[in-house]
Amino acid sequence: MSNTIKQNQYTISGQLVDVWKKEIYPATMHIQAGRIAAIEVLPKHVSVPNQYILPGFIDSHVHVESSMLVPSEFARLAVVHGTVGTISDPHEIANVCGMQGVEFMLNNGKAVNFSFNFGAPGCVPATTFETAGAALNSADVAALLQREDIKYLSEMMNFPGVLYGDEEVLKKIAAAKAVGKPVDGHAPGLMGTKAQQYIAAGISTDHECFTAEEALNKLNYGMKILIREGSAAKNFEALIDLMHTHYENMMFCSDDKHPDSLAIGHINQLCARAVAKGIDVFKVLKAACVNPVQHYRLNIGLLRVGDPADCIVVNNLNDFKVKQTYIKGILVAEDGKTFLPSVPVTPINQFHCMPVTAEALAIKITEYPLQDGKIPVIAAFEGQLITEKLWVTPKVNNNYLLSDVENDVLKIVVINRYHPAPVAKAFIKNVGLKKGAIASTVAHDSHNIVAVGTDDAALAQAIHAVIEKKGGISAVNGNNTTILPLPVAGLMSAEDGYTVATAYTAIDKMVKNELGSTLAAPFMTLSFMALLVIPHIKLSDKGLFDGDRFQLWPIEQPIATDSKRE
Question: What's the number of domains the chain is made of?
């Protein structure tokens, strides 16, 4: 049926999954001028193709930039898996390029037949404890929210600002309320009266729950909970059982999805896993298809007469392998092949960083917090954005702190990419590198340069590689340097999505097989080590940050010892 893309009127037959009646029956759907003109219910004895017709899937919260693909290329890969739309927060590129970045995402997204639903970034920059490339104030946000192509106020990460009545924060929320648009939340670990207060301010969703207890607490206060399963943060297993009874107020999202995993699957994978867990298929489809459309009031069809013909055809209701994807009545993908065209891209960027020397990365023992002979270390965890504070006996040579490869305590640095500034330095555990270094200009949310390495020479080499390309991810093994350039704001490639996915797979394999990283997604995990709004300890370009006290750690100030020791 690949010629369907050229047709104005046609039919699709199969077992129609009616999410409204919660019934499955043989039917022929008549498409005309991009809409469902009629649904002909057939007698059960009538033979129809052995396939199921469903509404299209929606990713209810994703930062497209994290795929390292521009929106048009993200769409080309996503439609193959039955995704017809996203709720997209463009705050990554907004932190780099401001309003110009938001316009870039909107315009590029409109160049293809896909339902991108962008929000007005609510926290640019995310905090005052880091250097971003731009800032959007309440007036900027209010202006964006007036636009028809801006659907909501993006995640309000500054939950302390909500709780303590920050004037700018409250103005942004008020601007969304004034035009009747939802406000997305971001409040990891917030529970009880504080969660109730946060929700009462007008926050409608949260995608940061990492325990069922937290999610249930917020559900009981009237919040909608998004089950996140991305390339780094994976909360599906912790939250999925809640869908048995709370499916009306739950959705699926990826939040951050690297190109290699997007090439393999998307929301369809979560549907298959949910059904395998014993969740009723209609509850699953309510979360994957219906709830996002209703909550954000999207112009996406849900298999009703008169709706846009946004639908998918799958082989069965167990593995949800997508045979065809239609958007506005046009066949955009079939049997693993995308029909969306690649769109020429003119990169935008903001990059003003000079190369650093290995000497500039050295850490004198007097320059770093030291308590009882131990130093604070960031402990990263597989599948989580949260970190823990560890106190570790450091490896020292001639009064300099060194990476301790044997104990997997490695140096991590963050470098301001917007103007010259001192290098911020710390140590991290659980990256697992045995040699070499990796670096990235994808470092949520301000996107300075973040790098981890086993020695200063390799670190400097990896950093130099991304500076030379004005953005990218790099890996160094001796004299061998591999880089995936990201010229669009230092976040995204301008190349074909499948080409980027292949290149990413290669560099990811190098980091694991040659350098020894034990992480499933080393670059994605690295990108979150500067994300200050996620507890408990992170590193910004201004220094170590205590997420519990929500402040930078001056060397001379005693550091709280309410954390683990080794």
Answer: 2
Strands 250-253 and 224-228: parallel
Half-sphere exposure of 151 (CA within 13 A, CB side): 23
Question: What's the pTM?
Answer: 0.93
CA separation for the pair 427, 393 (Å, rounded): 11
Q: Which tokens go with 162?
A: 């909500």
Distance CA 66, CA 86 (A): 14
The two three-digit tokens of residue 407, written as one number: 């104990």
The answer on pLDDT for 383 being more than 80 is: no
Residue entry with tokens 């020695």:
455
pLDDT digits (tens, 9 = 90+) for 62-109: 999 999 999 999 999 999 999 999 999 999 999 999 999 999 999 999
Residue 236's closest CA among 257, 217, 251, 220? 251
Task: Assess if residue 294 is contained within a domain.
Answer: yes
Q: In the sheet that 551-552 helps form, which strands lie side by side, from edge to edge?
A: 537-540, 543-546, 551-552
Position 312 in a domain: no
pLDDT of the residue at 7: 52
Q: Domain of 535? A: 359-565
Going by C-alpha positions, the residue among 315, 565, 378, 362 that lies closest to residue 456 is 362
Fill in the DSSP letter of residue 497: H
| Boundary residue ending a domain (283, 300, 317) | 300
Is residue 488 a contact partner of residue 497, using CB atoms and an 8 Å limit?
no
The reply to whether 43 falls in a domain is no
Return left, alpha or beta for 546; rule: phi > 0 is left, psi -120 to 50 is alpha, else beta.
Answer: beta
Answer yes or no: are the C-beta atoms of 545 and 537 closer than 8 Å.
yes
Instruction: Based on the fold, state whether residues 147 and 255 are members of the same structural domain.
Output: yes
Q: Are residues 117 and 204 in the same domain?
A: yes
Beta-carbon neighbour count of residue 422 at 10 Å?
11
Residue 443 CB neighbour total at 10 angstroms? 29
Placement of tokens 């309000």 in the chain? 156
What does the pLDDT look like over 291-350, one tens digit per residue? 999 999 999 999 999 999 999 999 999 999 999 999 999 999 999 999 999 999 999 999
Same domain, 280 and 143: yes
pLDDT band at 268 (very low <50, low <70, confident <90, very high): very high
Please tell me the number of Cα atoms within 13 Å of 386 on its side-chain side.
Answer: 13
Give the closest residue to 206 by CA, choosing from 250, 148, 262: 250
- Give residue-wise pLDDT tens across range 96-146: 999 999 999 999 999 999 999 999 999 999 888 999 999 999 999 999 999
Euclidean distance between CA atoms 553 and 558, whole angstroms: 9
Residues 508 and 385 in one domain: yes
